[in-house]
């Protein structure tokens, strides 16, 4: 079994020397660690808005805001990120007002600080990955491939809707859809038979399609322990599922092209092959649009093509 990848960490501290020392201690333990730095709130939020971060290590005071206030702002942008307050004095923190912001605490004075910090971070990230949803070993590379398509001019919604409708009709399914799976949500960029915007990644079947990077068929979600009891499936009338990974030019799975039915259904190999043909067409459209980028102001995650 492949070992878990090094987590992506953001160290936030307004003191340059103290921040550099924390980064140095972490990288001494794990030279391959993906370590990012920020000295104030604005820089920290810019990072979490533009890339996936597994864990944040923050001081108690950050350039006019407390570590808890910063943690709340970060969670607004990346709800599942693990956060560690790393300071020797947290007496001035308003823990009552931020009681819903769950963070861990580790004092700076702890012996063998780098190893202790990294162990805590790895444990938190591992716990989340096991509980919430499966994450590919190359998740950071996969997300980087996805971001390649979320650029100005990548308008794809009309095309994705059209292909979803064609697949739905061809396979006589209740709903056809195209979903791109980012760090925490699935964005439905095309849908026929329903009106979906986005959904938590942990509630979707497509995150499992992305994880295994091959076609996935679920004849009855009620009989699959991964999906039984998920209220969203009941609400939307999802009983069976077939999905094929949407791959980037580099072969990374960035989402899936799917059909679902409101009845138990064992999709045949031929039906999955037909779905794969529609997936190939969508992939070609993504690459074509990327090649002829127009420079408009909205990206693929939500933009309507003209």
TrEMBL record:
Any GO BP annotation: phosphorelay signal transduction system
One Gene Ontology molecular-function label: kinase activity
Chain ranges passing through the membrane: none
Record's keyword annotation contains Magnesium: no
Alphabetically ordered keywords of this record: Kinase, Transferase
PROSITE patterns according to UniProt: RESPONSE_REGULATORY (PS50110)
SMART domains, alphabetized: GAF
Residue ranges of domain Response regulatory in the record: 8-123
Protein name listed in UniProt: Small GAF containing sensor
């Amino acid at each position: 079994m492949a070992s878990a990848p090094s987590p992506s960490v953001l160290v936030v501290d307004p003191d340059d020397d103290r921040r550099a020392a924390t980064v140095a201690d972490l990288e001494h333990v794990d030279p391959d660690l993906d370590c990012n730095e920020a000295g104030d709130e604005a820089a920290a939020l810019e990072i979490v808005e533009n890339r996936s971060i597994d864990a944040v290590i923050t001081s108690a005071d950050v350039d006019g805001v407390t570590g808890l206030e910063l943690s709340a702002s970060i969670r607004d942008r990346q709800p599942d990120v693990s956060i560690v307050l790393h300071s020797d004095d947290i007496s001035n923190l308003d823990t009552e007002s931020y009681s819903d912001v769950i963070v861990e605490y580790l004092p700076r004075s702890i012996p063998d600080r780098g190893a202790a910090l990294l162990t805590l971070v790895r444990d938190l990230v591992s716990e989340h990955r096991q509980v919430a949803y499966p994450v590919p070993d190359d998740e950071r590379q996969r997300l980087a491939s996805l971001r390649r398509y979320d650029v100005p001019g990548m308008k794809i919604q009309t095309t994705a809707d059209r292909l979803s409708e064609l697949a739905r009709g061809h396979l006589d399914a209740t709903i056809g859809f195209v979903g791109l799976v980012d760090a925490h949500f699935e964005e439905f960029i095309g849908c026929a038979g329903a009106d979906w915007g986005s959904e938590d990644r942990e509630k979707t079947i497509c995150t499992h399609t992305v994880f295994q990077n091959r076609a996935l068929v679920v004849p009855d979600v009620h009989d699959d322990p991964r999906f039984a009891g998920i209220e969203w499936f009941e609400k939307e009338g999802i009983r069976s599922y077939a999905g094929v990974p949407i791959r980037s030019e580099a072969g990374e799975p960035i989402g899936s092209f799917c059909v679902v039915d409101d009845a138990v259904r064992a999709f045949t190999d031929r039906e999955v092959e037909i779905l794969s043909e529609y997936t190939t067409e969508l992939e070609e459209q993504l690459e074509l649009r990327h090649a002829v980028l127009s420079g408009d102001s909205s990206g693929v995650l939500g933009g309507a093509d003209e």
